[in-house]
Specification:
The structure is a single chain. This protein is α/β, with parallel strands linked by helices. It has two domains: about 1-155 and about 225-385, Alkaline Phosphatase, subunit A (3-Layer(aba) Sandwich); about 155-220. About 35% of the residues lie in helices and about 10% in strands. The protein has ten helices and eleven strands. The radius of gyration is 22 Å and the shape is globular.
Length: about 400
């Protein structure tokens, strides 16, 4: 399962397909999906009720981001007493993560923030983290493709990574042995309060030891015949695609089966020099029905969908011995937690589902749900198709049927 997030809603006029059912036509903003149209479905009418203001007032961007994978209402606080809920990806990772080298992979093209105030009294943790391990623990994403690649496959050039990996494992174990002996010596000289601090330290050390043991149990990681990424490119398009390249390699080598990718946080005011738009995205999203602003939003939507299409084509090009593509075996969900950035509404969300046909999803559809259906129903379907039996998730009211 793989989630891709884009911020600030879309220009629905150029987003929504022309007709419902099996014979829809792609609109202007989504035309880049033409080569993989048979592998995607548009879903209309999904909502996140917990993204709405309720009694919490302003802060729709923080709530949009926080609810997207959790379907839970974030506690409004700018302090450390954050409270949300486990995200769909982490729920699955906690149940099946032992089957792969990494339980899950969290990626971003933004910086990482876990503290401070970001949106109308909401902590930055809500706005910069899609994945949550539990009610108060965000799982920070990585925005440097080089570090992601080295985490997956080791450092160095192709042909050197195996030896480098083994050398690093030996060094880590040697260092842990040394630190444990030093800590035991210090422990004999400490009082009660300091011993508690030392115990916290030992807990962290044991966590590292468990990660090393798990890594060794899976043997030496794959060594793809690809160069190690140099770092974060200056071009936003190149940054996105490089992260997608690494993500597709992670799935292809079965290094993980669960991933989330935040292309930008909600409320992002990034400009788009790649398509000659110097205005900030968030500023443009408050369009007040201004035609010039709406036109630029449509072009930004098109830019993001082009990157999504690039990713789907990469997954489709990886084919196994039985003729099934990696895309056939991977459920991909692309969307935003806001529909119209000017209205800040959390219903009728722009959502595209792709792939997953080898595990039951049927694509090439335009599915419409009137009256608003919890997006958690779709998350619950994905959770169950990953082999995790849950009765409910978030504010789900049932399971969304993606088989017909």
């Amino acid at each position: 399962m793989c989630y891709l997030y884009v911020p600030n809603g879309v220009n629905m006029r150029h987003w929504r397909p022309s007709s419902a059912g099996d014979s829809f036509e792609l609109n202007r903003s989504t035309a880049a999906l033409a080569d993989v149209a048979g592998e995607v479905s548009f879903i209309e009418g999904l909502r996140h009720q917990n993204g709405t203001s309720g009694r919490d007032g302003a802060g729709d961007h923080a709530r949009a981001h926080a609810t997207y994978l959790t379907a839970a209402r974030p506690r409004k606080t700018a302090g450390t007493d954050i409270h949300l809920g486990v995200s769909a990806d982490q729920l699955v990772a906690q149940r099946i993560g032992e089957a792969t080298r990494l339980p899950s992979l969290e990626l971003s093209c933004d910086g990482v923030r876990r503290s401070g105030s970001c949106d109308s009294g909401y902590a930055c943790a809500y706005q910069f983290n899609l994945s949550w391990a539990d009610d108060d623990t965000p799982v920070s994403p990585e925005d440097n493709p080089r570090l992601v690649f080295e985490r997956l496959f080791g450092d160095g050039d192709h042909g050197e990574r195996t030896a480098n990996y083994q050398r690093r494992q030996a060094q880590q174990k040697s260092m842990l042995d040394f630190l444990s002996e030093e800590a035991k010596f210090i422990d004999r000289q400490l009082g009660g309060d300091d011993r508690q601090k030392l115990d916290e330290y030992f807990t962290a050390v044991r966590d590292i030891e468990r990660r090393i043991e798990k890594s060794e149990a899976y043997g030496v990681p794959a060594d793809p015949d690809r160069p190690t990424p140099p770092g974060i490119p200056t071009s936003y398009r190149d940054h996105i695609r490089l992260m997608m390249d690494v993500l597709s390699l992670a799935l292809e080598t079965d290094s993980t089966r669960v991933a989330s990718f935040m292309l930008a946080h909600d409320g992002s005011n990034r400009s788009f020099p790649d398509i000659e738009i110097g205005d900030g995205h968030h500023d443009l999203s408050h369009h007040k029905k201004n035609p010039e602003r709406l036109e630029k939003i449509a072009r930004i939507d098109q830019f993001y969908v082009e990157q999504f299409a690039y990713f789907l084509k990469k997954l489709k090009s990886s084919v196994d011995s039985e003729g099934n593509s990696l895309l056939d075996h991977t459920m991909v969900l692309y969307g935003s937690g806001i529909c119209d950035g000017d209205r800040h509404n959390h219903d009728d969300l722009p959502v595209i589902a792709a792939g997953g046909e080898a595990i039951g999803w049927k694509q090439n559809k335009y599915r419409r749900f009137k009256g608003g259906r919890p997006m958690a129903d779709l998350h619950l379907d994905m959770i169950r198709r990953m082999g995790v039996e849950e009765e409910s998730f978030g504010d789900s009211a049932g399971v969304l049927d993606m088989t017909s």
